[in-house]
Amino acid sequence: MSMPIHLHSELTSPPLQIECLEDESGLGYLLRWLGTNHLPFRWLKKMLAIRGPRLPDTRDAIVLSYLTGIEHDQLKPMLMKTFGNAKEGGMLVYGQQLLFRDLYRFRSPQICPSCIHQKGYISRCWEFGPIPICIEHGVYLIDHCEHCKKPIRWDRPTIDICQCGRIFSSPVNPSERPGIAELNLARWVLKPLMASESLHSLEASKAPSWMEHLSMDGALRIIKAFGICQTPYEAISSSYPWGKCTSQFWRDLFRRAALRIECFLDPSISSELCTLVYQPFLERVAFYPLTTPDKESALYLLKQLYDYEPLTHFDSAKGHLSQKRLFD
Ligand SMILES: [Zn+2]
Ligand SMILES: [Zn+2]
User: Fold this and answer.
1) 220 lies in which domain range?
2) Is 112 inside a domain boundary?
3) Is residue 220 part of a domain?
4) CA of 114 to the centre of ligand 1 (A)
5) Which of 140, 160, 194 is the last residue of a domain?
6) From ligand 1's centre to the CA of 107, what distance in Å?
7) Residues 118, 33 within the same domain
8) Mean pLDDT per 10-residue run, the chain (328 residues)?
9) Is the pTM of this model over 0.85?
10) Does one domain contain both 187 and 305?
11) Which residues have a Cβ under 8 Å from the Cβ of 231 and sit 6 or more positions away?
């Protein structure tokens, strides 16, 4: 049972302050800090005057900095900043800009129970829909509680306890584990978010040159292009509900993407890749890239897979979004 809480109209900071870790999730840090102080998530939302389903983001950074004692400059980059739709710049979190906010799993957290129990914090690497993998344990992340079967929420007692009151556990019989191709792909893409110490132990495989310099936005969109189709020549609805996809959905997509990228890297494997990789998504990266390397990689893939060289004269759509404006 948590302590009775008396809400005051003025801001009262909880007594216990904790440090935020190098690769920790922003919301995960807040939940860990609340748990240390035996305060529920709803207390924080009340302090931030947040109503409804909204979660804390950069708009709350000043108050959060005061409450937690963490420097504003350190706290703000850990929270989501929204610019608007893709043309307006999408969003920014952990220094990574994503044009499409659906790539970021903000509302429906997924976890690695082993990490939470062993390391005691929530990793920021778990917040990107297309990569539902814990590299460290070589397992898929879960977004449902094994006990109550309900989706995991941020609004829960502490980082390791579900809103149903039970401690999170890993699936009893993990029927599937990610293979080498999936783990390598996850490492390449998540590299900018990983703690420096785990990076040293992960130098095993080197990313292909077209992938090495991709932004996170470019990499996640290319994974979607490689993995979305289940069958050849599939057409994907433009109103696909990306924001509502489960970890299981992304797991299947990511597995297909990793295996197809592996095929692409090894020309000796004959494959029907051009019928399986979704060309319109690659074209969109070529026409509306976040960065120049993203555009170049998308053009390279279009050429290699379909022998297609689009004219990208109006390529500077995103050029207006200078880094300066986005990061001030
Ligand atoms: Zn783990
Ligand atoms: Zn539960």
Assistant:
1) 180-316
2) yes
3) yes
4) 5
5) 140
6) 20
7) yes
8) 49 87 96 96 95 95 96 96 94 96 92 96 96 95 96 96 96 84 95 79 78 96 98 93 93 97 85 92 96 97 93 54 41
9) yes
10) yes
11) none
